Amino acid sequence: MTTTLLLIRHGETTGESSIRLNGSTDVPLSELGRAQMAAVGTHLATIDVSDVLTTPLQRARESALIALPRFQPLTVEGLREIDFGRWERLTYAEAKALDPERYDEMLLGQPDFGFPGGETRAGFSARVAFAVTTWIGTSAPRFRGTRAIVAHKGTVKMIRMSLELAGVLRDPSGSTVSEGMSAPAITPCHLGSVSEFIFSGSRWDLVRWDDTRHLGELFQPDHPITR
Prior knowledge:
Elements: E1 4-9, H1 31-44, E2 51-54, H2 58-67, E3 74-75, H3 92-98, H4 100-107, H5 121-135, E4 146-151, H6 153-165, E5 169-170, E6 194-200, E7 203-211
Parallel strand pairs: 1-4, 2-3, 2-4, 5-7
Antiparallel strand pairs: 1-6, 6-7
Helix pairs in contact: 1-2, 3-4, 5-6
């Protein structure tokens, strides 16, 4: 049996996840977000999904229930989005205006950077890496069949980075992805996107990343980071 991992980012929210730093803030899906996840469901209809994992936040859980309604998703605390602290619900431009020095520190991409009153990147990375070890596996998968994880932009990108750092991820060319190659801050992961990994031998093969073709006119670009 083939082991496949699907990483799905939730849909747009009433808190505008496309432009705002909604990390620990528990906002529901908007009408656009629900339509996006219905499109994801249509896209996944021909895929034999085995089980579904999601996060405690309602935008992820609601997305899972819309896209894969035949499942009761398992909630995994470690897969929740990073906590942006006092920057929660701000746009990047607003965060820069509020705290320009800390904002410039964020742009440096250092792992020990901490959002004011929130999580550090290192803490977030360790939390997601533990979830990857527990629920996905690195050199050997912890499941059989096709597991779908419906989560958040930061979480989806950090799952990929965890596999990269473990040296067990190959890109579509067959080359092993090296440490730091995908720069999480700039790697795209749009609302309603689907990314796919297949386990082969002792490696995970990246089949597709940030696939949004199924969204059509429902595609919502993310607001770029303010420099």
